[in-house]
Automatic annotation (TrEMBL):
InterPro entries: BXL, Fn3-like, Glyco_hydro_3_C, Glyco_hydro_3_N, PA14/GLEYA, PA14_dom, Xylosidase_Xyl3A. GO terms for molecular function: alpha-L-arabinofuranosidase activity; xylan 1,4-beta-xylosidase activity. Belongs to the glycosyl hydrolase 3 family. This is Glycoside hydrolase family 3 C-terminal domain-containing protein. It comes from Pinibacter aurantiacus. Residues 1-21 form the signal peptide. SMART domains: Fn3_like, PA14.
Amino acid sequence: MFKKIVSASSLFLFFSLSLFSQILPYQNPKLTAEERAKDLLGRLTLREKISQTMNNSPAIERLGIPATDWWNEALHGVARAGKATVFPQTIGLAATFDVDAVFNTYNMISDEARAKHHEFKRNNLFKRYQGLTFWTPNINILRDPRWGRGMETYGEDPFLTASMGVAVVRGLQGDGSQPYDKTHACAKHYAVHSGPEWSRHSFDAKNISQRDLWETYLPAFKALVTQAGVKEVMCAYNRFEGEPCCSSKQLLVDILRNKWGYDDLIVSDCGAIRDFYGKGKHETHSSAEAASADAVLSGTDLACDGSYAYLESAVSQGLISEADIDKSVLRLLRARIQLGMFDDDSLVSWSHIPYSVVESQEHVSQALEMARKSIVLLRNQNNILPLNRNLKKLAVIGPNAMDSVMLWANYNGIPSHSVTILDGIKSKLSPDRIIFEQGCGLVDKTYFVNVINNCQFEGVPGFKASFWNTRDFSGGVVATDQINKPLNYDGGGNTVFAPGVNLTEFSARFETVFTAPQSTEVLLSVSADDGYRIKIDDKEVLASWNVGKQSRKTYKLQTEKGRAYKIMLEYFQSDGNATLNFNIGYNKQIENEAIVEKIKDAEAIVFVGGISSALEGEEMGVDLPGFKKGDRTSIDLPKVQEDLLRLLKATGKPVILVLCNGNTMALPWQSKNLDGIVEAWYPGQQGGRAVADVLFGDYNPGARLPVTFYASVNDLPDFEDYSMTKGRTYRYFNGKPVYPFGYGLSYTTFKYGKAQLSSTALRLGDSLTVDIPVTNMGNRDGDEVVQLYIRNPRDKKGPIKSLRGFKRITVQKGETVQVKLALSPFAFEFFDPQSQTMKIMPGVYELQYGTSSAASDLKTIKVKID
């Protein structure tokens, strides 16, 4: 039987070769990408050119150009395209302070990306999340811990963010030694962007000082453009000084194109061009034509929405010329040629990466290692940790203890298997020595216990999902999925329910068979935007088949033990933001006395709490106490969890808190009263094993905080105020944090000797080497993160200190390691108030080195620049 092994691009190429009977210049791989793109550009009609300026670029068959969708995600693993290795969320990767390990991780991610792309291509699939252009990393500065997307960033420091971002780009794009780029990365969201989520489509980041712009908000972007050669930059939703970021002449033209010489792609955030003219949004432009023309003229080459379809009308109205559009199309075509998308796979070495690398054992092992490296030990009173393996009974309590989805955070792929924190602990102690009780929900006294584990469809656990790109289930199924978790879909951030599914005008069907484990009342809980209906054994029991937001409703099913119930949920979406939430289970009330009684024999308690990406994230529909649209209005641990922790502490047993979260949490009481605190972030698919390794001493924690842990939201300025000088981050905060930036404990102790400088008197433009002796004074091997800060004491309005160097090292017990930190001349570059530019200015600088940003953890040495 003839097998379909010829790719669509090869078919197109064959067609064009037959048509022209010779290789045309744009088809010739011996020519440069620029030469080929220019030739191809000259063969396109205006309408064809415009079609290529939108993220879902269609095929142009007459020229052998395959379709592509530029929108792909790889925040901490290939995302939204099915099976993939899920590494720790990026805030956790930042906590590793290990640039080489981050590079290796993203090299693995790009291996999976290439393997998945070519597998899609072999099946003639060119849809969203199936291409080679990945919209990561997010290098915005986490200036305020209330921002829901802070977990996607590399923390609050510009230098750490730049260092991590450069490693990510190099891991994704390759080292440039191959004829084709491995993938393309994207620096986002350019440039002054970090919440609030609820107003991002209308918010104007204004009155930004030149100091804050150049010292805080731009350094990471500059590094990725000028050092890493990032191939895409994404402009943000909000305005900057009155102009939408995607048409900002200052950001895009003056700085990015002219000052930094960037000539690769600028892409819009999804829907950002529509915000220019949308009612209730920026409303800076009168029409879609005016908005699209201005965006292209400002340098935004690709629109992630349909607005650029109006460019043809804009040309006819004289708002933009075809020659102006050509500049963007040339860059778009050149990028695809650089990736080998117009050439046969036999010429592209990356195409030979086997699909078996996807979630391979090597990659899963790396996910475990990065989870271990990301865990920060915050408190260890009386050396309660590591836990004694001879414990007769250990109580494990808390809402995140057995939640596998929490481990994945957001912008994630789907792993074949996840190790929950409870699973990890069970691998260390026999089940008869573990007492588990969830205890509470993340924010509620009543929590929902789902029974998804009792659901399967045709022998496969969970729900079978089928999707149509019509509202009425007509036409063919465009995507299927198998989901073994509660349904929690949210189209916020233009997130599709599955690859190939529309954002609007679609329908979905979810089917499963639930086998009742006991005779009891089971609740089917659902909310949606737009309509839904639920059938049990083909009988409709709950329905709201209407356009608009449907409030949560619950159906009570009285079950019989052992009986199987066929359940079908159908849903449709018309327009607007699609959401669907469905769960099956029962409510359980917190019973404090029962919890205390149940754990009476425990010798220690591990409480696994925090929050999850179901509460914090991108423009979500969450409005609960302490949360607003994915942002937080409070940075406290939810009250229900703190109340339970106080109760557990009152038992007199040692209590260890394991935090799972994507951002700062205020822990004033916990930091003084609990026996141990372990910051685990959202640690990825192997997170449970990594946490257990730390708890029981099989791994000595060495991560450090990439953010400041404040005592209260009262320590923070107004969320919408972007000024750094009002006490934001460790660089300007004069208060007393609970835990400072760069902080983290170990199961051993380190001593710093006196640093030696290659010179104490430098000339402008000189580099400097700092040699720091670090001794492991403890009785076990461990990792230390050596940190170097620079302070300009002459600048009274500048930062208190700024990270300029760091290195994670492993030191054997009793040994001393000489740590060399090389500082380029630009390490001494700070904002000059007189010239209003970044400059290296003569004078005496303070070099502060040690184990965190806290003054008490640092030693000081001075250097003079003449």
